[in-house]
Amino acid sequence: MAIVVIRQDKKIELWKNALQKANSAINVYSYIEDHPKDEITMAVIWKHPKGSLAGYPNLKCIASAGAGVDYIFEDETRPKNIPITRIVDPFLASDMSEHVLAVILAHLKNLNAYKLDQVANSWAPKDYLRIKDVTVGILGLGELGALTATDLTTFGFKVQGWSRSKKNIEGVKTFTGGNEQQEFLKTTDVLVCLLPLTPATEGILNKELMSQLPKNAFVINVARGGHLVDADLIELLDAEHLSGACLDVYHTEPLPKSYPFWNHKKVHMTPHYASVSDTNSVIPQLIENYYKIGSGEKLQNLVDADKGY
Ligand code: NDP
Ligand code: OXD
């Protein structure tokens, strides 16, 4: 039994060392070093190179080092019929909630516009919005969406959410399914996308959906770039239907330098860092699952392969 860490960013050694430090009895390898492939029972991965999951004859679990698993289903060469797990973690949820709150407050108080004014030496007071007058609508009421929704209510926002199955969250008006989506959108001033990327949600932030938001609505996409139809967003911003957007995720990451978002005054960007798995917090659940593989117990935070999340 052993773990292989597969990721292409600079954090590969950090994850290998953190797993090793958490439990020195486990053999942990990085996929770029020589390692005995037949020993590997668990792969801890993040945006792995396609094809790199093949060739592990005893692999029993593919563990995403993040909450999202879309990149795993996109790899057709992945071994099928092996459980996939994902991260569910209180800091991942609270960091996301804090990010969304910061973005919404910056929008209400025109902070992004004032930064542009400052760069242009322009003194231009602007009307601002009050929390009590703003309805935030969250697409996706899972681990991250539900906490974000609850936290926003404590700040005095009106909050509503839309999800696949009906939810009951104190202080949050909930909607489900296609029929209720229209009502949800019509009454949403700030739309936050916290859906997983699946065939059912790909391109959901399109012209048809975003046109149903009230004039001057603001869109926040912190889920995946594949949810957004970029050209539709730009069209609705330029037509002054939407007042702005804040994006953390993109179709291609890093976003190519020539991309129109970079220089669009109404698009505010962060580099896919709204909320990041903290090794100290998430490694215990990975190690528990590693031992559960050995004992044949049910794994924690299993992904439903049929739903894709
Ligand atoms: P969960 O799986 O816990 O929640 C997903 C929510 O979306 C659920 O409420 C689910 O409904 C709903 N949903 C899924 N499919 C549909 C659909 N077709 N129609 C309506 N609702 C749907 O995910 P998390 O909250 O943990 O994470 C959400 C996403 O956030 C991740 O998949 C990832 O892409 C992104 N993320 C981004 C980060 C960043 O830094 N930008 C950091 C971490 C995550 P139901 O409850 O009924 O199943
Ligand atoms: C995740 C992410 O899915 O960081 O955890 O995007």
What does this structure look like?
The chain has 309 residues and is of the alpha/beta class. The chain folds into two domains: 2-89 and 277-295, 3-Layer(aba) Sandwich (Rossmann fold), CATH 3.40.50.720; 91-269, Rossmann fold. The chain is built from nine helices and twelve strands. The protein has helices at 12-22, 70-73, 90-108, 111-119, 143-154, 177-186, 207-210, 230-238, 279-295; strands spanning 2-7, 28-30, 40-46, 61-64, 84-85, 135-139, 158-163, 172-176, 190-193, 217-221, 242-247, 267-269. The strands form two sheets. A seven-stranded parallel beta sheet has the order 8-7-6-9-10-11-12. A five-stranded parallel beta sheet has the order 2-1-3-4-5, covered by helices on one side. Strand 10, helix 8 (230-238) and strand 11 (242-247) form a beta-alpha-beta unit. Helix 1 packs across helix 9 and helix 3 (90-108) packs across helix 5. The model has no long low-confidence stretch (mean pLDDT 98). Oxalic acid binds at residues 66-68, 276-277.
Low-confidence stretches: none
Strand segment tally? 12
Mind telling me the C-alpha Rg?
A: 21 Å
Helix tally?
Answer: 9
Structural class: alpha/beta
Shape: elongated
Number of domains: 2
N- to C-terminal separation?
Answer: 27 Å
Mind telling me the CATH class of the largest domain? Alpha Beta
Order of helices and strands: EHEEEHEHHEHEEHEHEHEEH
Bound small-molecule species: NADPH dihydro-nicotinamide-adenine-dinucleotide phosphate, oxalic acid
CATH topology of the largest domain: Rossmann fold
CATH superfamily of the largest domain: NAD(P)-binding Rossmann-like Domain
Give the amount of beta strand, in percent: 15-25%
Question: If strands are numbered along the chain, what order do they take across the biggest sheet?
Answer: 8-7-6-9-10-11-12
Mean pLDDT figure? 98
Measured as a percent range, the helix fraction is 25-40%
Please give the CATH architecture of the largest domain.
3-Layer(aba) Sandwich
